[in-house]
Amino acid sequence: MNTHLATALGLASRGVPALPLRAGKVPFGNCRSCRGNACGGRPNMKVPGPCDCPRACHAWAAATTDPTVLTGRPWAPVWEQTKAVAYHPGGAGLTVVDLDHAEAMAWARQALPATKTVPTTRGEHWVYRGAMRSVNGVRDGVDIKSTMSYARWLGPGTGTMTDLPDTVRALAVKEPSPARPAPHTPMPAPAGGGECPHRMPAYLDRGIAMAEQRITEATCAVHATVYRTFLAVLSAHGRCGCLTDTHITRLFAAAQTKGESPRHCTDAWTNAQTRLGL
Questions:
Q1: Which residue spans within the chain are E strands per DSSP?
Q2: Closest Cα partner for 85 from 193, 168, 149, 5?
Q3: Which has the closest alpha carbon to 222: 166, 265, 158, 185?
């Protein structure tokens, strides 16, 4: 049996979703019609786009614990071309703190509780028990790989795995950048005395809370969800003069907790305004 296939089957037998990687640590696609992200996935991202395939076909979403999938079509032909095996940490209830260089490892030894460690080409993977949102670049040389992400399988590692600490969870929470305040151009008040057509402040507050929830609950296509949510808020409230910097900052903060950068928040907001002619 192919060595990489044997590794993947071994992981699957322990409840760890596995997938093959080709040269460059890039996953294979498992659907001809979806090559080149033709079905909507974003190039070079680890998030699947909308797809009518019978099963997931992008990166982490292709990982499986089903041996019949790993050994059957469409995987069977690719094992001879496979250069490494990856797994979906979040699918196994795990989180990997990926440390890319010596400085990152030194920081982890000072800041994080000890757990199972796996040597990598440039640094280490620290593996914790528990899943969370994946975020790249939480610090210089530090990525978090868990849900909606994949990590190379580099062996069982050493040490005793411990529970995911709040210290790691906190790394994924990004505060809004003070260097990029939420842009807000006051809209002209409506004719007829300037009264907000929504009349009750509670209406606006409820709308902002629902928008925050929509962003927070997004499990894929976060970029698109943020833009659509901003567009919906501006469609409802962008012309009446009732939106304040506080409201917009709340929306930006919700987006940034999902891993969006301040720049993307600004771009999404500006694009939504442009589309609505505001």
A1: 18-22, 26-27, 84-87, 94-99, 116-119, 124-129, 135-139, 142-145, 151-152, 162-163
A2: 5
A3: 265
Whether 19 contacts 64, CB under 8 Å = yes
Residues 189-234 pLDDT 10s:
444 444 555 556 677 778 888 888 888 888 777 778 888 899 888 8
Q: How many CB atoms lie within 10 A of CB 162?
A: 16
Integer Cα distance of 9 and 69 in angstroms: 10
Bridge partners (DSSP) listed for residue 124: 99, 119
Q: How many CB atoms lie within 10 A of CB 258?
A: 19
> Which pTM value belongs to this model?
0.60
Do 58 and 41 form a contact (C-beta atoms < 8 A)? yes
Residues in the chain, how many? 278
Report helix, strand or coil for 256: helix
Query: Which amino acid is located at 130 in the chain?
Result: G
